[in-house]
Design a protein that fits this description.
By secondary structure, the protein is an alpha+beta fold. The protein has two domains: 103 residues, Nuclear Transport Factor 2, Chain: A; 135 residues, Muramoyl-pentapeptide Carboxypeptidase, domain 2 (2-Layer Sandwich). The chain has six helices and twelve strands. Strands 6, 7, 8, 9, 10, 11 and 12 form a seven-stranded mixed β-sheet that branches. Strands 1, 2, 3, 4 and 5 form a five-stranded antiparallel β-sheet that branches.
Length: 253
């Protein structure tokens, strides 16, 4: 997260000092060249990290999805709100893990005619909290209706903090050659339920399990989270280290 802040936030007149800020963290200044939308043009910028979520974790490598909101003051004084999600890749090193690459989200252009489900999700307000990249995914028209309708159904009983929908997620299930459902617009991750972070030990287990079972009832064939649930169809529920901090919902169509 320090790296993302060093690139995506800068005081007046210091946008061009990103390499120096990254180098001061002991990281490769060349990472700035991979930052893309994290470095919009502007006189100054502030950045808020909404959540840092696992995209995958193995013994020696990891993916951390850093979800950001960003406010940029343009040269004319206007402030523009935005943000992105960055897939930060790491490898084990001493004394700490080392960043090897940045993969920012690329949601695509807004659809000229978003579907009804997309419009309802975008208008759901606090019931479905969408960070910038996730909202842009929905506006692009590239998210399957099954995902959107499931979110609307789940939001009838819960406030959902969405972290990742389509862009900003690894293209393949981390550590495998299997395509992920996320880049195909067939999955969504929820990191917070009714204001409680999934990873927080104080969050009631029954709350997380309730959402996981509700996701299965809403049509998800692949529900992951910090707990391995019984029941469902064969392989419908799963749990591993990657999903201890969020609930994953994947859809076949």
């Amino acid at each position: 997260m320090e790296l993302v802040r060093a690139i995506g936030a800068w005081p007046a007149g210091e946008r061009g000092a990103a390499r120096a800020r990254v180098g001061a963290l002991g990281l490769a200044p060349s990472l700035v060249d991979q930052a893309g939308p994290l470095r919009p043009a502007g006189a100054e910028a502030v950045l808020e990290v909404v959540v840092a979520q696992y995209g995958g974790i193995l013994a020696d490598t990891a993916s951390v999805l850093v979800v950001c909101r960003q406010w940029v003051r343009r040269d004319d004084g206007a402030v523009v709100a935005g943000g992105t999600t960055v897939d930060v890749r790491l490898r084990r090193a001493r004394p700490r893990w080392e960043v090897t690459a940045l993969h920012p989200a690329a949601p695509g252009a807004p659809s000229a005619a978003p579907g009804e489900a997309a419009r309802r999700v975008l208008a759901a307000g606090p019931a479905i909290e969408l960070p910038p990249a996730a909202a842009a995914d929905v506006r692009s028209g590239a998210v399957h209706t099954s995902v959107l309708e499931a979110l609307l159904e789940l939001a009838r009983k819960h406030r959902l903090g969405v972290s990742v929908v389509r862009s900003g997620h690894p293209l393949k299930v981390f550590g495998t050659d299997r395509p992920s459902d996320h880049p195909r617009g067939r999955a969504v991750d929820v990191w917070r339920i009714d204001g409680r972070a999934v990873v927080d030990p104080a969050t009631p287990r029954r709350l997380v399990e309730s959402l996981m079972r509700a996701a299965a009832a809403a049509g998800s064939y692949n529900v992951g989270g910090p707990y391995l649930l019984s029941g469902g169809t064969a392989g419908q529920f799963f749990s591993d280290d990657t999903h201890r901090d969020h609930v994953h919902m994947g859809f076949g169509t």
